[in-house]
Amino acid sequence: MLKTIHHKADICVVGGGIGGMFTAISAARHGAKVALMQDRPVLGGNASSEIRMWISGAGTRVRDLQETGIMEELLLENMHRNPRRNFSTWDALLYEMVRFEENIDLMLNCACCEASTEGSRIRSVKGFQLTTYTWHEVEADIFVDSSGDSILALLTGAEYKVGREAKAEYNEEFGLDVADPHTMGMSILLQCRETDHPISYTPPAWAYDFPTDDAMNNKPHNLKAINTNFYWIELGGMQNSIDDTEEIRDELLKIAFGVWDHMKNHGDHGAENWDLEWVGFLPGKRESRRYVGDVVLTQHDVENCTPFPDVVAYGGWQIDNHLPGGFHMDAKGGRHLQKRRLSEPYPIPFRALYSKNIENLMFAGRNISASHIAFSSTRVMGTIGVIGQAAGTGAAVAVKYGLTPREVCKQHIGEIQDLLMEDDCFLPGLKRKVNPLTLQAKLSCDYGDCSAILNGVDRRIWGCDNGYFGKTNKAITYTFDAPAHIGGFRLVLDSDLDREFTDGNPNGLNTSSVLFYPYSHNQTTFGFPRCLIKHYKIEVQDESGEWRTVYEDDQNHQRFIKKPLDLTAKAVRFVPLSTYFSEMKCEDYGSSVAHIFNFELY
Questions:
Q1: Of 440, 532, 548, whose CA–CA distance to 491 is shortest?
Q2: Using one digit for the tens of pLDDT, what is the confidence trace for 190-246?
Q3: Strands, sheet with 234-235, edge to edge from the N-terminal-most edge strand
Q4: CATH for 582
Q5: Is 524 part of any domain?
Q6: Coil, strand, or helix at residue 255?
Q7: 489: containing domain
Q8: What are the DSSP calls for 364-397, one per residue?
Q9: Domain tally for the chain?
Q10: Among residues 267, 285, 303, which one ends one of the domains?
């Protein structure tokens, strides 16, 4: 008989994609005991080395809206440690963020197969770990399904939807005359590498043959003219995107190798010197089951930015609806896609993150409570990341008070929102509260006016900078009337949330796409936000008037910094010493510019 290991947690997260990871990390950082059950050997879901989809979000489409919080922490860490965007290094970083986070019990290669319920509550879930041939059973107070396919809906009877709604259901412009079960398809991605010499290619005998562009349905594939990850090698929208996955994968592989054969051997597509370096064998899935919560986000909410009072996350990716025909649809005139760009971020409410009928079930991923059309915007991983951080924070607050997700939304949504903004998450329409200790001190600076660092908006937004442009070696100082106890300090620095490119890239590929062209024949490496402050120090003044350094970092590579001090001081000052501009000796900006969004004491 196979053994069973029993786990007890406050929160159990099923699924270790970006949403599940951020749910677990945020809940653990707020004191909850978390069990994370992931059915793959690596974390990251569609962003992992198994699928290799880059992380896109609101900031990819709307100026200055790059997701912050845990998402920006992860991306900056990767840019700092992984300049060639190597996927093994990336996988290791995702593993590190979860495996070595206190309060997380990580179970990899463990597929959730069973759930035990009592009435409308989940008592436990059970998963089989293939590597150890062991069952793992987890009891918890709250369960968060980040599996993408919403496995707990099937196992618990939670309400869910599949497919496209009729226009009459939500009165959506893009709704259908008659609802159907069709979804967006799934894709197999390719990774190619440019060399300095011609590379030949012989396709497998079972690959499809595409002798002409028409045979490939005119999909964009000329390497001279485009930068693509071959997202259009897509099938499954007309089938069952869960039950038929293995069959769909087989067809996608035949197409993928046939596409590369076409590019190499049927006409000039700029691929002569390119080598097929990697083909995904795990399809990247866009859509399957979507849960039903107390609120269903619709096209109206996405386009009109409905001001939900329980806002805990935001989106901004375009309405990006891949029509079910996928690869089989002709691409001329964009007929395989239905798109509409958005100009502002839209709020995502907490009520769309918990189940309507299972009282201790939440969700964080592409499976949140949304119509098919709204989902076509919320499904991208940048948005999923901030949803995950919101779900994890909310679940931790619910555990703290012994409440269900619905109850904590009614009673403590303000606390959840405050924690998220304190952790550097942006919530449309809200401002972060300034710490009371900070307001007890007099603020001054050696250069210009630094009052903007206390406006509660820690980023540029809607054309307003909301930050302080100072100079290196010029201090920002808080002075108290009498010596005060300082628990720590909080900093938010400029990491260029409008970044659209990386330096050192001869092909001109944007920040996201470089994951798919990790290096060319000249061994390209990629840059780092040069505006970020690299070297700074915190100094305190004692009662004698002497200043001393109590914290210094000469290798900073993060935007959001919160560190403990635990001391008594009459005054505290932040001194920026250099930026990554300084290190690169950038003549356009100079070494003296220091851009700061927040400096506070707590």
A1: 532
A2: 888 888 999 999 999 999 999 999 999 998 888 776 666 788 999 999 999 999 999
A3: 234-235, 186-187, 284-285
A4: 2.60.120.260
A5: no
A6: helix
A7: 436-494+529-601
A8: -STTSSB-HHHHHHHTSHHHHHHHHHHHHHHHHH
A9: 3
A10: 285
